[in-house]
Automatic annotation (TrEMBL):
InterPro entries: ABC2_TM. Keywords: Membrane, Transmembrane, Transmembrane helix. This is ABC transporter permease. GO terms for molecular function: ABC-type transporter activity.
Amino acid sequence: MSKRQLYLVAHQTYLNRFKTFGFWSVVLAPLLIVLAIVGITLIMDATQSHKQPTVAVVANQPLNRYLKQNKAVAATFKNVDSLATAKQDLKQDRIDGYLTSTPTSYALRMSVDAENLSETTLQTTIDQYHMLSQADKLHLTPNQLNSLVSKPDFQTSIYSKSGKSSQGGQATDQANQMLSAALGIFIFIFLTAYVGMISQEIANEKSSRIMEILLAVTSPGIQFFGKLLGIAGLAITHGLIYLVVVGVTAIFFGDNQFVKLIKGLLTGVDTEFAIMTGLLALVGIFLYMILTAIVSAMVNDLSQVQQAVSPITYIAMIGYILTFVLNGQPNNAFINALSYVPFISQTLMPARLGLQYANMSDAFIALALEIIVLIFLARYGLRVYKRNVLTYNDGNITKAALLSLKGLFSKKS
């Protein structure tokens, strides 16, 4: 195999795709979506009304006085003598709502177009008032009351397989779940984009009969690996562009609230995790590209590409879907086993690493299995490619695929 010819095919494939709108739409679409979300959020925050609602406290001067002094609730409180007066004021838009009370209950009525009011904060404040009122009736001293209601200090720590301890709690669980889901979405989009590119590249040349001309001056191996290397170069370029964007954002917009939020989600993620995730995803993309190239060589024209490539996309969806159910299931034997399986591990294993359900040793095993399957698929996939790239079969693609596997592993092939 001529290295120069291999380089020329890879270089030509890379440049042809690099200059297309399709490649840059794949690169820029996620960035534009993120920018759009950030922009809409900023606009909504800037245009949001910060006016405090006015709430009438019906016939309860002590409660009204306590709410005003407490100032925990972002609202303006006023006392009214009767429920009828409160209803009349609400009807005429002089207040946004009213609060009624009995010795054992409280009720808030708000207008549908009222300004935002934190009901949770209001309920907490009322609970405090009610507790103080009951303590006063029972003649409890402030110290006795504090001793009665004080809560013991309780902390939760999570010790991961990587030997790191982190704070637990609902917020941490939600952050970890978001991280695993984001990894699954990102890697799945990456895979489907480059699976589509390699399938179109090979099927287009075969259906237009250009492949016959190309193979007159080069070998099938050069065309096979050259196109794979060219598309792989695009995937690497794509990843590097995102790394540059992330680096620039972290340096120049480190104090932005959205950047801080993302940094919070990545707590516990280190350089080893980033490198291992990149390697797993990259080798996984190579696996899918080789498999797609093999399948694409069996089609007769572009109209059959979608039919042929669909099963490959379904395989990629397995890991993608499982990332959404991974959180909270560190000992699920089925998911843990699938995280080592090539064609699925590129999504599941990074998600398990992000959740700290797996360590680097587990990731190295998954990566080694991917590389072994990659070598095997590249070696025997070339044989399938050679058999089918200049063969035009009428009828079922599955039948043609089964016939191409006949005698594949024999030494005479």
